[in-house]
Structure formats: structure tokens, C-alpha cells
Amino acid sequence: MVDAAVLEKLEAGFKKLQASDSKSLLKKYLTQEVFDALKTKKTTFNSTLLDCIQSGLENHDSGVGIYAPDAEAYSVFSDLFDPIIEDYHAGFKKTDKHPPKNWGDVETLSDVDPTNEYVVSTRVRCGRSMEGYPFNPCLTEAQYAEMQDKVSSTLSGLEGELKGTYYPLKGMTKEVQQKLIDDHFLFKEGDRFLQAANACRFWPTGRGIYHNENKTFLVWCNEEDHLRLISMQMGGNLKEVYARLVNAVNDIEKRIPFSHHDRLGFLTFCPTNLGTTVRASVHIKLPKLAANKAKLEEVAAKYSLQVRGTRGEHTEAEGGVYDISNKRRMGLTEYDAVKEMHDGIKELIKIEREM
């Protein structure tokens, strides 16, 4: 049974959310009927509806407002997760099945800005969860430490361009920390959305960061997801960035089993990252389009692109630099997600030129 204190919190939070002017997907789909059906349910990890929605109940300015405390939550609380997933991932219905992994032909991608006029930098990242472990809110301190050991020993086996060093956050010297912050590598302790979702317990135990010698390949351990694999470099050569990520994921996958779901693809803490989990993005300057934000948004929407401020979600564009990425991560392959971004950015540059 879900205990009385949890139910009380749920009821109070639900009332407040209903009365708020929140635009979150949580508010849109958490009807009285769905709420009543789910409020007494639990996963085998003892996760309740409150564990899923506490971030959205606390932060009415959330865009989504829900996280999965463990992989099972996607099934147990599917009456709420499914419509949110369908809304966010452009019509991925509860009857749909995410296609098998396919990185496609890397050779068909190109440098989206060969003259280096618009694109400042390019990055492609994906998230992975380690099989047999729940997500952040349910992990014990011992599990965090154990996962970090597995990750750091696995990464120490990477060779060639991917060879590098793992830095645990715990016991990190101020100098190393500052260096990594200056390189824009180091993630800070969770933002308020993650804090409210209980994703930052036992910090900094089990958290760390790996990077190769050229600083073009990074792995974050236990930030939001168990693993975030990131490939990046200056300029617009998406082909190089993507190829590096594909090599890395294929290599790491041989050594660490990842959580995969028949219908939802690769499993992640936040439902917006499910499926391919791939987010391909550029930092790009489009001064003319930026002056006409409606036009920028219109072209972006046509290619299922998401326009954010320079430092990502909930930020402004600094010096006219936008972060533009693919929005859809489900119902299409990894290659298709990146190709969508590739074609959309080329189109944006073409329009910018014409203007």
C-alpha cells in the first residue's frame, strides 16, 4: 500500500497543479480520472506516482514535469506516461513500437557549414542506463559507487581517439574542477527540476566525468542518466562528430549491458530522451532569422527542431547564439534523428543567406 503521508502529498500537490496556470504536459494529461487510477500504485522498487511527478508538482514552470524513478514506472504508470510521450515525440502512440537501433551510413552526412560562417560548434549525445539498476531516485549510495567503478574501468579500455581519463567528482581538486568548468565540461549539482525529482542524493558519490585527450569525446557518469555519451567539436562537421559517437557507443556497449525496452527503445530517466536518446545540436548564429523569431520557429518546426538559448533549456540566446537540436527521439532511427537535424540546419543557413 502507498502510505498515507504520500497520498496526502499527492492530493495537495494535484490540487495546486490543477489551480495553477502551468503549461506542463503533466498538467495537461494528469486528469482526475488518471490521478485516481494511479495514486495507489507502486513499482517493485517501491516507486509511487509521487516519485514520478514531484518535480512537476513543485515546479509549475516545467515543460514536461515527469520522470521515471525506475524502468518499471513506464509500465506501471503508463496511463500518464503514454499520452505525454505521444505529445512530446510527435505522435508516438501507445500502439507504436520504437524501431531497432540503426546508426545508418555515416558517409551520407556532411559538414553543415563548410565555410564556417554560422555554426560555432556541433555536438551529438545519447543517454544510456545500465541494466539491473534503477534510476537516480531509487539508487543507494553503494550502488552509485559500484556503478562508477564499472564505468571507469570500462572507459579505461578505450583506445585510439577515444582514449582518455576518468575524473571522479568526489575528492576532485579545485584546480581540476575549475579547468573542467572552464572547458564547459563539468556538470554542476542538479538544477531545481532534478533536485525536486530526488535525482541528486548522495552527491557527489558515484558521479564523474571522462574525456579523451582532444576533449572531443566526453562521458558523464550519474548526472541525470547513468551515462551521457557526448561527441563534440568546434565548427559544423556533423559527420565527424557523429562518427566518433557511433564508434564510442558500439565499443562501450560490448562491455556494459544497457537497459532497453521492446516498445520504448533505450530507457532514460526523463521520457523526453527515450527511444534513440539522441540529441544532435549546433550552437549557431542566425542574426537575420533571430530578428524574426516567428520565422525561425516556423522553419525549425518544419524539421522537428527545437530552438533553445545558448546554455540550453530555460536560457536566453547570448550574443545571438542559439542551441538548435532535433526534437524527436522516438519512432525513428538514430540515423534519421541526426539526419533531420542535418537537413534542418542546412535549410536554416540557406534562408539566413537569402535574407
TrEMBL record:
Gene Ontology terms, MF aspect: arginine kinase activity; ATP binding; creatine kinase activity
InterPro entries on file: ATP-guanido_PTrfase, ATP-guanido_PTrfase_AS, ATP-guanido_PTrfase_cat, ATP-guanido_PTrfase_N, ATP-guanido_PTrfase_N_sf, Gln_synth/guanido_kin_cat_dom
Any single GO BP term: phosphocreatine biosynthetic process
Keyword Transferase among UniProt keywords: yes
Annotated SUPFAM superfamilies: Glutamine synthetase/guanido kinase, Guanido kinase N-terminal domain
Phosphagen kinase C-terminal domain: residues covered: 118-355
Protein name: arginine kinase
Residues the entry annotates as binding ATP: 121-125, 184, 228, 279-283, 308-313
Family from the record: Belongs to the ATP:guanido phosphotransferase family.
Alphabetically ordered keywords of this record: ATP-binding, Kinase, Nucleotide-binding, Transferase
Organism: Thrips palmi (Melon thrips)
Enzyme superclass (EC): transferase
Gene Ontology terms: cellular component: extracellular space
Domain (Phosphagen kinase N-terminal) ranges: 8-90
EC number: 2.7.3.3
